[in-house]
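May I ask for whichever protein you like with its backbone structure tokens?
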Amino acid sequence: MAPRFPDAAAATHQDAGPSLDPERFAVLTEMCRAPGSRSTIDAIVDAFVEDGDLRVVEMEGSLRARDLAALADLAHELTGSSASVGAAALSALASGLQRQAAAAARRSPIEVSDVEDIERMLDLAVAEFRRAETAFRTALRDLR
């Protein structure tokens, strides 16, 4: 069955591209090295991964509970946090997931095809989150 929503169709055929924007990562790294900075790039990456892990669990729970409005809110948060650290592919996937979940949440009753599309998009976002985590860990290792 073809995805019902354009974003779901695009996400299933999307060229993932790089998980980490090297320019954004370089800017973050330099900001952390600036005199007076209280942050370290390691702490930023650790916080992003820990927060992302929690969001993934909460999004999966929201999908199981068919609380698509909550899932949309969580996807919105993931969109912003991933964009801020330079995980552009994840940000794009999370943004599409947010739009799809919000649109489906406005319908009553929620259709099975809505849930199937959103589940596929969530799976892609989780896989991209893991890919981004690996890219960050590799980039951190390369800094040393």
About this structure: The chain has a mean pLDDT of 88. The radius of gyration is 16 Å. Helices lie at 6-12, 22-33, 41-64, 68-85, 88-105, 112-143.
